[in-house]
Design a protein that fits this description.
The protein has about 425 residues and is mainly α. Helices cover about 80% and strands about 0% of the residues.
Length: about 425
C-alpha cells in the first residue's frame, strides 16, 4: 500500500515529537511566547532610548536583566529538581504576563520612568532564571529519549526563527500602532503560553519528591545551596558531562566575542566604504542574517538525523568547521564572501548546539537535569562578558587577529578533544 505524503511527513524524524500532545502544547505555547519576546526586546530598547537618549542607560537596563538571570540560574535549576517543573513553567508565564501588563499600563498612561524599566527588567531576569532550567529539564519527560535531538531542534529552531521574523513585526507595530500595543501583545503571548502549560498533564518521575512529603529544609536557602552543591558534584563526577561543559565554555568564549564585537568592527572598517555608517551597518546586518539563517538550517538538519552515531566525533568536527570559518572570516575580501563563510559557521554552530543539548539531556539523571541545565547556562553567562570585553580590546588593535585567535582557540579545543577518549569515543 502506497503511503500518502502526510504519512511520510509524520514518519520524518523531525516531526515525531509533535505526535505527543503535551510536547505539542509546549512547542506551540513557547513559540508564540518567543514571538512576543521580540516585541518586548525591541520596544524596551526604543523606550529606554526615548526616555534617556543614553546608551549607558540602555546598557544598564539590559545588564540588570541579564545579571539577575545569571545570579539566580543555579537556584532555579535546584528548585526545578525539587518541585513540579510544569508548575514552575505555569507560574513563570503568569508572573511574566503580570509584569508585562504592568509595563503596558505605565507606558499607555505616559508615566514611565527609568527606574520602572530597571525594576521590571530585574523581575524578568529572575523569572527567566527559574523558567529556563525547568523548561529544558521538562522536555525529556514529554518525549522518548531517541526523540530528544528532534525535540531540541524544534524548540531551538523555533526560537531562532522567531528571532529572525519577530523584530521586523515588532518594528511595524511600533511604527503603526504604538509602544503600549507592543507590550500588550507581549502580555497576550504570555497568557497564551500559560494556558498551554495549564492544559498539559502533570508528569512525575519514579522516586521524584514531587507530590510527596519533603523535608522543609529542602526549600530553605540552606537546602537549596546544598542541592546546588550536589548538582555541581554530580556534573563534575560524570566524565562526559564534565567534558561537554568545558567544551561548551571554550566554544562560547571563542565565538561570542568574535561574532558580537569583531563582526561589527569588521563590517565598519573593511566593508564600510565612503559612507561607513550606512554601508557598514548594511554589511553587518547582511552577514549576521546569513549566520542566523545558517544556524536555523543547522538546527533543522540536526533534528532530521535519526539517532546520530559517533556524536563526539561529529561535535568535534563541527567545532573545527566553526574554527576554520572564523579564521577565514577575518580575511574575507567582500560582504558576499563573508556572508557565505559566516553562514557555514552558523550551520555548524546550529548543528552542534542541538546535538550537545540533546546529548546532555539524555545522559543526565532525570532528578539532576534541572541543575545540570542551569549549570551550563550559568557557565555561558559568566564567560560571555569576558569574551566580549577581550574581543573589544583586540578588535581595536587588529580585527583580523581577533578572528584568527578565536578560530585558533576553537581548533585547539577540537584537537585536545580528539585526544580525550571521553568525548571522542562517547555516543
Amino acid at each position: 500500500m502506497n503511503e500518502t505524503l502526510s504519512q511520510r511527513l509524520r514518519r520524518f524524524p523531525l516531526w515525531r515529537p509533535l505526535s505527543e500532545r503535551d510536547f505539542r502544547l509546549l512547542f506551540v505555547g513557547q513559540s508564540v511566547s518567543l514571538f512576543g519576546d521580540q516585541f518586548y526586546l525591541v520596544a524596551l530598547t526604543w523606550l529606554t532610548l526615548q526616555l534617556t537618549g543614553s546608551g549607558l542607560a540602555l546598557g544598564t537596563v539590559l545588564m540588570v536583566g541579564g545579571g539577575a538571570r545569571a545570579v539566580f540560574q543555579l537556584v532555579g535549576g535546584a528548585l526545578s529538581d525539587r518541585i513540579s517543573q510544569r508548575t514552575i513553567l505555569l507560574i513563570s508565564n503568569i508572573v511574566r504576563a503580570l509584569v508585562s501588563a504592568l509595563l503596558t499600563v505605565i507606558v499607555f498612561f505616559g508615566i514611565t520612568r527609568l527606574w520602572h524599566l530597571i525594576v521590571l527588567s530585574l523581575l524578568f531576569g529572575i523569572v527567566d532564571a527559574f523558567f529556563q532550567p525547568a523548561f529544558l529539564a521538562y522536555i525529556p519527560r514529554l518525549i522518548e529519549r531517541k526523540q530528544l535531538t528532534a525535540g531540541s531542534a524544534l524548540m531551538r529552531g523555533s526560537s531562532r526563527l522567531m528571532g529572525m521574523v519577530g523584530p521586523a513585526a515588532a518594528g511595524l507595530v511600533l511604527y503603526r500602532v504604538g509602544m503600549a500595543s507592543a507590550f500588550a501583545l507581549d502580555t497576550a503571548t504570555f497568557v497564551f503560553a500559560a494556558a498551554t502549560v495549564w492544559l498539559m498533564r502533570e508528569r512525575r518521575l519514579p522516586g521524584s519528591p514531587e507530590g510527596e512529603l519533603v523535608e522543609e529544609e529542602s526549600y530553605t536557602l540552606k537546602g537549596l545551596l546544598g542541592s546546588i552543591r550536589e548538582g555541581l558534584k554530580y556534573a563534575w563526577s560524570e566524565p562526559l558531562l564534565r567534558t561537554l561543559l568545558i567544551f561548551i565554555t571554550a566554544v562560547e568564549f571563542s565565538f561570542v566575542g568574535a561574532s558580537g564585537v569583531g563582526l561589527a568592527v569588521l563590517a565598519k572598517n573593511k566593508f564600510g566604504g565612503p559612507d561607513a555608517a550606512s554601508e557598514g551597518g548594511a554589511a553587518f546586518a547582511t552577514i549576521l542574517s546569513a549566520m542566523g539563517a545558517g544556524a536555523w538550517i543547522g538546527m533543522i538538519v540536526a533534528g532530521s538525523i535519526e539517532a546520530p552515531r559517533r556524536k563526539g566525533r561529529l561535535v568535534i568536527g563541527l567545532s573545527s568547521m566553526i574554527g576554520v570559518g572564523l579564521v577565514l572570516l577575518g580575511f574575507a575580501p567582500s560582504v558576499i564572501t563573508a556572508s557565505i563563510v559566516f553562514g557555514f559557521v552558523g550551520l555548524g554552530g546550529g548543528m552542534a548546539n542541538i546535538i550537545i543539548l540533546a546529548w546532555m539531556q539524555a545522559r543526565t539523571e532525570p532528578q539532576m537535569l534541572g541543575r545540570v541545565m542551569a549549570l551550563a547556562m550559568f557557565m555561558v553567562s559568566l564567560i560571555e562578558p569576558l569574551s566580549l570585553a577581550l574581543a573589544g580590546l583586540m578588535a581595536d588593535y587588529n580585527v583580523t587577529l581577533l578572528f584568527a585567535t578565536a578560530g585558533g582557540i576553537l581548533l585547539a579545543t577540537s584537537v585536545l578533544s580528539l585526544a580525550s577518549q571521553t568525548l571522542r569515543t562517547s555516543d
